[in-house]
UniProtKB/TrEMBL annotation:
Lineage: Bacteria, Bacillati, Actinomycetota, Actinomycetes, Actinomycetales
SUPFAM superfamilies found in the cross-reference section: NagB/RpiA/CoA transferase-like (SSF100950), Winged helix' DNA-binding domain (SSF46785)
Superkingdom as given in the UniProt entry: Bacteria
Domain HTH deoR-type: 3-58
SMART domains xrefs: DeoRC, HTH_DEOR
InterPro entries in alphabetical order: ArsR-like_HTH, Carb_Metab_HTH_regulators, DeoR-like_C, DeoR_HTH, NagB/RpiA_transferase-like, WH-like_DNA-bd_sf, WH_DNA-bd_sf
Protein name as it appears in the record: DeoR/GlpR transcriptional regulator
A GO term, aspect molecular function: DNA-binding transcription factor activity
Keywords tagged on the record: Transcription, Transcription regulation
Keyword rRNA-binding annotated: no
PROSITE patterns given in the database record: HTH_DEOR_2
Length: 248
């Protein structure tokens, strides 16, 4: 396969899946990882993608509704584990994110739970449950994340106090902490942390080692991380030295 065909294949995979892995592409295209890395660098220089740890993502971030099905089984397990932390009559905040949006779906049987969120997906998933009271912050609508951000959102968050907050991320690492593509979204997460007793990051392991545009919180600033079991042993050790880690 020539460079033009290889390039076309990679861009098609990016459009369909939103992320590609160097090792997977090397195996599928029957070339060396070095060849794939060189091709990804060329495509990044041409503005077609952004390289990440072990792969690449598109320069244009996919709408959150297109990302909902990515690693859905891992996300469901993580969300279920987070929901188990919620008590009757609890007060929680949930920030925008595909995994965070699933938490309320697993609150069946809880009574009197009050949720403050800037996520329209959280609101949508909570609507069928009459025992959850949802307060949706105001703010400016951001279509790619189905979230509300900006000064109105920030003022609204500062009116509430909660026991738990569940945060999402576009990438996290020991060095860069929690990161996001949307600066305003990162500010929302930081404000929610300041209004709650415990801060939990919900993220599948594919986001470890990746970095979004903005770092908005250190690993040491979260109470704990709930993730799946695909993290390397060395990474698990690094994270557990700095925060609680729950692997589901």
């Amino acid at each position: 396969m020539g460079r033009a065909q290889r390039t076309s294949y990679i861009l098609d995979r990016l459009a369909a899946e939103g992320e590609v892995s160097v090792n997977v592409l090397a195996e599928e295209l029957d070339v060396s990882p070095v060849t794939i890395r060189t091709t990804l660098k060329d495509l990044e220089d041409e503005g077609h993608l952004v390289r990440t740890h072990g792969g690449a993502r598109p320069t244009a971030y996919r709408n959150i509704r297109l990302r909902q099905s990515d690693r859905i089984e891992d996300k469901e397990r993580i969300a279920r584990a987070a929901a188990e932390m919620v008590r009757d009559d609890d007060r929680i905040m949930i920030e925008a994110g595909t995994t965070c949006a699933l938490v309320v779906k697993h609150l069946t049987g809880r009574r009197g739970v009050q949720v403050v969120t800037n996520s329209l997906l959280v609101f949508q998933n909570a609507r069928p449950n009459p025992h959850i009271r949802v307060t949706l912050t105001g703010g400016s609508f951001h279509a790619e994340t189905e979230s509300l951000v900006g000064p109105v959102t920030e003022r609204s968050i500062n009116d509430f106090n909660a026991r738990l907050v569940f945060l999402g991320t576009d990438g996290f690492s020991v060095e860069r902490g929690l990161t996001t593509q949307l600066a305003e979204g990162g500010h929302v997460g930081s404000l929610m942390r300041g209004r709650t007793e415990e801060t939990w990051l919900l993220s599948d392991s594919s986001k470890f080692g990746r970095a979004g545009f903005v770092s908005f919180m250190g690993i040491e600033d979260v109470t704990g991380i709930i993730t799946d079991g695909d993290l390397p042993e060395e990474s698990i050790k690094e994270l557990t030295e700095r925060t609680q880690l729950r692997i589901v």
